[in-house]
Specification:
The complex is a heterodimer of chains A (110) and B (118). Chain A is mainly β. Chain A has strands at residues 9-12, 18-23, 35-40, 47-50, 64-69, 72-77, 86-93, 99-101, 105-109. In chain A, the strands form two sheets. In chain A, strands 1, 3, 4, 7, 8 and 9 form a six-stranded mixed sheet that branches. In chain A, strands 2-6-5 form a three-stranded antiparallel sheet, with no helix packed on it. In chain A, a hairpin with a 2-residue loop joins β5 and β6 (72-77). Chain B is globular. The termini of chain B are far apart. Chain B is an all-beta fold and 118 residues long. Chain B has no helices and eleven strands. Classes of the chains: A mainly beta (110), B mainly beta (118).
Chain lengths: 110, 118
């Protein structure tokens, strides 16, 4: 069971928008709407940012949004802020009834 | 507010068994799923598995032969047992509440570091 594919790093300037991709197959990301996204600051536990592909938990800024096209899910952060600098992970259900994380993406705010 | 706290030895010898407990406070364990996730130093997150409050389980295929997750709702705790550990099992271990209908972890413990070394 391979990890979902994410870019190792992305960067953007304050105020800009960035998108992090999460690519799987029809047996995971493409086949189900159980995709969630997590933000992790150094030394901290991950925090849920998006679930069910595009839903936001209460308390998460509306600058964070999720979407999916085919076998690729995406997390978009608009109006980038310094505090958004963190690692981001996607997570998905799979066709063998298990679950898998993406490899993670380091977001740098320039 | 539900809180989760991991506990257990920080050092385990190779070939021995890693045992961790997660204590849930501020809420009921039913009817939720409770999960373990780990993160090796400098690497990404890895799903280990989960247990439902009734005791049914689901494990990562890569760890299934070595892992057991159990729950004791009377103590508001669930546990991880990983046998025959090697240095590759060195990681920060997180416990988390898993909402199956959303496929997401909505509550996390702070994590506990476990090193496998003689």
């Amino acid at each position: 069971q391979s990890a979902l594919t994410q870019p190792a790093s992305v960067s953007g300037s304050p105020g800009q928008s960035i998108t992090i991709s999460c690519t799987g197959t029809g047996g995971d990301v493409g086949g189900y709407n159980y995709v969630s996204w997590y933000q992790q600051h150094p030394g901290k536990a991950p925090k849920l940012m998006i679930y069910d592909v595009s839903d936001r938990p209460s308390g998460v800024s509306n600058r964070f949004s999720g979407s999916k096209s085919g076998n690729t899910a995406s997390l978009t952060i608009s109006g980038l802020q310094a505090e958004d600098e963190a690692d981001y992970y996607c997570y998905s259900y799979t066709s063998i009834s298990t679950w898998v994380f993406g490899g993670g993406t380091k977001l740098t705010v320039l | 507010q539900v809180q989760l706290q991991e506990s257990g030895p920080g050092l385990v010898k190779p070939s021995e068994t890693l045992s961790l407990t997660c204590t849930v406070s501020g809420g009921s364990m039913s009817p939720y799923f409770w999960s373990w996730i780990r993160q090796p130093p400098g690497k990404g997150l890895e799903w280990i598995g989960y247990v439902y409050s009734s005791g049914s389980t689901n494990y990562s295929p890569s760890l299934k032969s070595r892992v057991t997750i159990s729950v004791d709702t009377s103590k508001n705790q669930f546990s991880l047992r990983l046998i025959s550990v090697t240095a590759a099992d060195t990681a920060v271990y997180y416990c988390a509440r898993f909402i199956l209908m959303s496929g997401a972890f909505d509550m996390w413990g702070q994590g506990t570091r476990v090193t496998v070394s003689s």
